[in-house]
Amino acid sequence: MSIRKIHVAFLDQYHPRIHSVITSAIPKTWTASFALSRASKDQEAAVAGAHALFVMAAPVTKELIHASPQLQLIQKLGVGVDRIDRQACSERGIAIARLAGGNSVQVAEHTLLLILAALRRLPVMDRRTRAGEWPKEEARGICRQLHGKRVGLIGFGAIGKALVKLLTGFEVQIVYYDPAFASNGAHESPARFVPLDELLATSDVVSLHLPLSPETANLIDKGRIRLMKPGAVLINCARGGLVDELALANALLDGRLFAAGIDSFAQEPPLANPLLDLDQVVVTPHIAGATLDNFSFVMERAVRNACNYFSGGNLREEDVVFVPTRVSLTER
């Protein structure tokens, strides 16, 4: 197959400015289709003739894969691939790629934003001030500073390392747990490796930076929340399935934990989620990596990956999730 004949499908719903970036980034010889909505019929219509799917949050189900008989590559415009049916891709010989580190700085910035907003109870202070109140003295008795605290990072990939750089100026102690980086000698960083239980018991702020997998699902459950330092803050800009949200809500209600900042939920959008009713919780709609400034870079890398793959070349090693044994593309 000539890379001049690629048809790429986009399943997510995009802001007009992002849509413009996409259409500017794809090669002029490619064709593109965009799903009109999240409805199954519109998603399937978009992928019907696609050789490649570029996806952000949209799930890629077995049914969707069956509706795209020419599909050869799924390119995630981010890192997490837990919403892609990897088994169905393996059975069909469809490659899966991600963009490792493609939005690490943006997610790190958003993580820091949630840490500060949670410590200062920013949303509720904003709402009350707009309503004509002036809760200055109440804030003085409740709000907390980040300076001098211990921050524990669970997961120490590109995002965790970017966050360490942002945190350095706050004169915090930084510890991390990640089996892939189990010694201080593995990297140049002020962060120090500690076992998971020690991190939970001693950190004033615990921030999650892990993919969702069978090994990490519900990692922060009722038992591990009990291990956390009393008055600690939990931040999740990774995946909602990492946290038992009911257990977290109960720990906030009974005062065991001080606050939480949540960008990712087990169900999105969250429906009847107890965390949404709590003033101690700062919530955002899974937007940690979502900035207009960075999207041109995201698309540039995604297109480069697709061009390499369809010309018979290799994907960047860190971007590979699954690559089938391939016949020559000219035989397809």
List keywords for this structure.
332 residues, alpha/beta, Rossmann fold, seven-stranded parallel beta sheet, six-stranded mixed beta sheet, 12 helices, 13 strands, globular, disordered C terminus
What's the CATH first level of the largest domain?
A: Alpha Beta
Could you give the order of strands across the largest sheet?
8-7-6-9-10-11-12
Mean pLDDT over the full residue set: 92
Q: What string gives the helices and strands in order?
A: EHEHEHEHEHHHEHEEHEHEHEEHE
Give the domain tally.
2
Write the CATH architecture name of the largest domain: 3-Layer(aba) Sandwich
Main sheet overview: 7 strands, parallel
**CATH H-tier superfamily of the largest domain:** NAD(P)-binding Rossmann-like Domain
Q: Report the span from N to C terminus.
A: 7 Å
Radius of gyration: 22 Å
- The rough form would be described as globular
DSSP strand count? 13
Query: What percentage of residues falls in helices of 4 or more residues?
Result: 25-40%
Task: Please report the number of helical segments.
Answer: 12
Instruction: Tell me the fraction of residues in β-strands, as a range.
Output: 5-15%
Structural class: alpha/beta
